[in-house]
Amino acid sequence: QVQLVESGGGLVQAGDSLRLSCTGSGRGFSNYAMGWFRQAPAKEREFVAHIRPNGDTAYADSVKGRFTISANKARNTVYLQMNSLKPEDTAVYYCTVDTAAGKRFGQGTQVTVSS
Question: Alpha carbon of 51 to those of 12, 30, 110: distances in Å?
Fold first, then answer.
């Protein structure tokens, strides 16, 4: 069974940086794409970024140039470096992994950006 544990959220000011981490347990992680979604209050959950096993990455337009996703396959860990944070980045951030049985989400970590 796949499990994901996120960490690194917190309260920061606009313009600050944060790095989120997510470590997965279970078999086959090196073969799975991993990524991040987020959900702001009263909004739909939205895609943020993902990284494929071959290292290819993709980002939502709203975070391009500010966020960077990376992975340490040996540790089954994916990171999200978030720079130049804005109040509109405030959300619960969820780690995801695309397994053969479908997309799995972590429990989420809160990121709050004050203006």
Answer: 25, 11, 21
Round to whole Å and give the CA distance between 51 and 49: 7
Cβ–Cβ < 8 Å for 23, 4: yes
DSSP alpha helix (H) spans, 1-115: none
Phi and psi at residue 29, to the nearest 5°: -60, -30
Indicate left, alpha or beta for 22 from its phi (over 0: left) and psi (-120 to 50: alpha).
Answer: beta
Cβ atoms of residues 89 and 95 within 8 Å: no
Higher pLDDT, 1 or 109: 109
